[in-house]
Amino acid sequence: MKYDLHSHSTYSDGTLTPTQLLQRAADKRVDVLALTDHDNTDGLAEARKIADDNGVQLVNGVEISATWSKRLLHIVGLGVDPNNAELAAGLKQMQNARSERAQRMAKDLARHGIEGAYEGAQEYSKEGLLSRTHFARFLIDKGYAKDMKQVFKRYLVNGKPGYVNSEWAPLADAVSWIKAAGGVAVVAHPARYKLTMTKMKEMLADFVEYGGEGIEVIGSGHNDDDIRITTALATEYGLMSSVGSDFHDPEKGRRELGHVAPLPEQCVPIWQHSSLSLNKIN
Ligand code: AMP
Ligand code: MN
Ligand code: MN
Ligand code: MN
Fold first, then answer.
1. Which of 76, 123, 199, 221 is deepest in the core (most CB within 10 A)?
2. pTM for this one?
3. What is the secondary structure of 54-85 as a DSSP string?
């Protein structure tokens, strides 16, 4: 069985529609796919229609931007009910925060001589949610940087043009919305946060206390060392292990859909979680 439990569509900063994403999942022989758009579950309805026909089992997901100790974390929710009122209300707040942030980002870019970034970024967002990725694509196409790597060095990051502070969901709230919607909360790509081991452990202790249950052991940007360290942390904190490519884009993406390393033997796979109803196909 091939599992990929982290991916994006045009409902956030991915470039494939949910339909195209599900088609690609089938092409790449993914058996179980989670669509986990940033702060948004609106693509799940379209994804569900296709998944039933093309042999890919869809897990309803979301990737919530959360704040912990003044840092940004991404928390993936798996098996969420997108119609749950508490989750929907939380995500609505996040979407408003994103629109408001996008306007401040554009103002900051204008101060640095780059005009029209708000409208420019909107052109790249098919469904209206605005992320830094849409600004990045605008900046690349206008010639301000040659690729994603370069644009996120020169712009949109702390201390560079286009970066503004933003308040995301407190970690406790992100976990609580996911649980209210019947889902399982998973720390996304832990190695990407560059936390010291002390901070990582503090964060995981809080995450578990709030009701978090999983961690991506195979996550985007994880090398062999990261996988080893994350496996040990999963064991220490009693977390189940997840696997996700964090696929965004077939052209310029770093990661292909379904291109994920196997979980180490000692991990307890998140797909055995009773709330995901995937155990019957193990
Ligand atoms: P946002 O959630 O709007 O702040 O945007 C964050 C998104 O930007 C992430 O989900 C990635 O898709 C993208 N991103 C951030 N840093 C990088 C990077 N160094 N290279 C490529 N994409 C990045
Ligand atoms: Mn993204
Ligand atoms: Mn992420
Ligand atoms: Mn992601």
1. 76
2. 0.97
3. HTPEEEEEEEEEEEETTEEEEEEEES--TT-H
